[in-house]
Design a protein that fits this description.
Elements (H helix, E strand, L loop, with lengths): L1 H33 L5 E10 L22 E11 L4 E11 L7 E10 L1 H4 L5 H8 L2 H10 L3 E7 L2 E8 L13 E5 L5 E10 L3 E10 L2 E2 L4 E2 L2 E6 L2 E13 L34 E6 L2 E5 L7 E5 L4 E4 L5 H14 L5 E5 L5 H4 L2 H7 L2 E5 L3 H8 L9 H4 L5 E5 L2 E5 L4 E6 L10 E5 L4 E4 L13 H13 L5 E4 L9 H7 L3
Parallel strand pairs: 17-18, 18-19, 19-20, 24-25
Antiparallel strand pairs: 1-2, 1-13, 2-3, 3-4, 5-6, 6-7, 7-8, 8-9, 9-12, 10-11, 12-13, 14-15, 15-16, 16-17, 21-22, 22-23, 23-24
Length: about 500
């Protein structure tokens, strides 16, 4: 009897799985038909984007209010999705930050593409997912990759959810997953996937497509919104669309790259050279850590019972190297704190190994929500230090000022605002050795004017009236810098 029941269960499971596969094929076919059984589509309008973990260069709104706020405007936006090549390209006119740290935006060109080689689902998912996040690309991928179907309700709406995986695996060996939500009108309303990201772990990437309408013979959404980790990332307001344009191959030509070299789709960059850490003693139990030219420097401070690290470096490798050097210089004490100057990706990259070490992150209050959510996201797609040694990230925020002291060693931290670079910038001041530590307020080369960021910092320092001599930047300087150098840079 038990054997018979087992056989029945296996048969039911097989039939159910087979029915789900058949159901998926029908859902895909109906959705493709509802979208016009297209070979290609182009749509246009206006858009906006943002550099991940930063703020957009915006001609109207120059002050960074928070993570991904404001975003950068993209005018004359055009996207082409060619399902036969297959490939995807989009372009527009935008503005980029001016050189030398100036905040006035300069005219620029937005251009991104997914090449035919990158669309291959055996290639890195980070390069191909922008094609498959589109409704048309998603359905093409679903038809070719054994999609399954399920039912789900989201925000009160009933959906058939198509699910499939590319053949490429995540660094952890786990399969990536992509879901498309097909509504009762056979329209794809949303597409989601996950990507392993250094700070955001299993980062959720969601593209929503709303306001679907007939643009003169082709169905297209009038609004497209993409978020990453729950934060705004890319938006489009669509004002026109065209099915199967005859000039699809020549629409949105790639810009001519500087020096005539190939653009997207070029080979991977060379592997980074091993980091050799050297230290500069600034005082008893106080050291600057550096790797020389191009380094992201950190300062380590010895307290009675623990070590405080100011800035963790821009990568996991640098974070690990600085942890090892800190333990060598100050043995038998835990790294209890790591101070983050601001939440840009090149200043948070070393935080995961510090979290794995058990250190509490000190950051400005405006960054608290971002770092707590990001660093406490599961890391099942990654194979890094924190994924192998998972720990809950502890974040301690600073509003305007906070002093850490054990009676012999003191470190003061201050919020610097308003400045254009970030709403969550902090500096650290070490009164005993008269050291000021900061990130991204780089002094100009000899004979060059100070940039807008440095000009914004100086009046804040004057108001704080900090008695410092040494001026240390996270971005290493060729020679030691002083308060006199800073004052001279702004003409004081």
């Amino acid at each position: 009897m038990v054997k018979k029941l087992a056989v029945v269960a296996i048969c039911l499971a097989y039939l159910c799985g087979n029915a789900m596969a058949q159901d998926a094929k029908g859902v895909i076919a109906n959705a493709q038909k509802a979208l016009g059984d297209l070979k290609s589509i182009t749509y246009s309008g206006s858009a906006k984007d943002v550099a991940f973990q930063q703020c957009g260069s915006n001609a109207v709104d120059m002050i960074c209010r928070g993570t991904h706020d404001p975003m950068r405007p993209i005018n004359n936006y055009v996207r082409v999705i060619d399902l036969t090549a297959p490939t995807s390209r989009h372009t527009g006119t935008t503005n980029n930050p001016a050189g030398g740290g100036a905040t006035t935006p300069m005219p620029g060109t937005f251009f991104q593409q997914v090449t035919t080689q990158q669309v291959d689902v055996s290639q890195p998912w980070v390069n191909s997912l922008e094609f498959y996040l589109t409704p048309w690309g998603f359905l093409k991928g679903a038809a070719a990759n054994n999609a399954t179907a399920s039912r789900r309700k989201v925000d009160g709406k009933n959906y058939t959810v198509l699910t499939w995986s590319p053949t490429v695996k995540a660094p952890s060996g786990k399969s990536y997953v992509i879901n498309g939500y097909v509504n009762e009108q056979n329209i794809v309303d949303r597409v989601e996937t996950w990507l392993g990201e250094n700070i955001m772990g299993d980062m959720h990437i969601l593209a929503t497509y709303t306001g679907w309408k007939d643009f003169g013979g082709v169905m297209a959404p009038s609004k497209i919104v993409q978020t990453r980790g729950g934060w705004p990332f890319f938006e489009v307001d669509v004002t026109a669309a065209k099915a199967n344009p005859p000039d699809v191959a020549t629409l949105v030509p790639p810009p001519i790259p500087a020096g005539g070299r190939g653009g997207a789709g070029a080979g991977a960059p060379p592997a980074a050279a091993p980091l050799t850490v050297t230290s500069e003693k600034l005082g008893d139990g106080l050291y600057r850590l550096t790797t020389g030219n191009g380094s992201y420097d950190s300062v380590i401070v010895e307290f009675k019972d623990y070590i405080m690290m100011l800035e963790a470096g821009q990568s996991e490798a640098r974070g690990l190297a600085y942890i090892a050097e800190a333990k060598k210089l100050i043995p038998n004490k835990p790294i209890r704190y790591v101070m983050n100057t601001h939440p840009h990706s090149d200043h948070t990259g070393g935080l995961p190994p510090l979290v794995a070490e058990g250190a509490t992150i000190i950051t400005q209050k405006n960054n608290e929500e971002f770092l707590e959510k990001a660093l406490n996201t599961p890391r099942t797609l990654l194979n890094d230090t924190l994924a192998r040694n998972p720990k809950k990230a502890k974040v301690e925020s600073v509003s305007e000022k906070k002093v850490y002291s054990d009676g012999t060693r003191t470190v003061e931290m201050y919020h610097v605002s308003p400045v254009p670079h970030s709403s969550g910038l902090m500096i650290a001041y070490i009164p005993k050795e008269k050291v000021l530590f900061q990130g991204d307020f780089s002094l100009p080369a000899a004979g060059q004017p100070a940039n807008d960021h440095v000009k914004a910092l100086v009046p804040i320092l004057e108001k704080l009236n900090l008695d410092f001599d040494r001026y240390i930047n996270v971005h290493t300087s060729a020679t030691p810098q002083t308060k006199a150098d800073l004052w001279k840079a702004v003409g004081k």
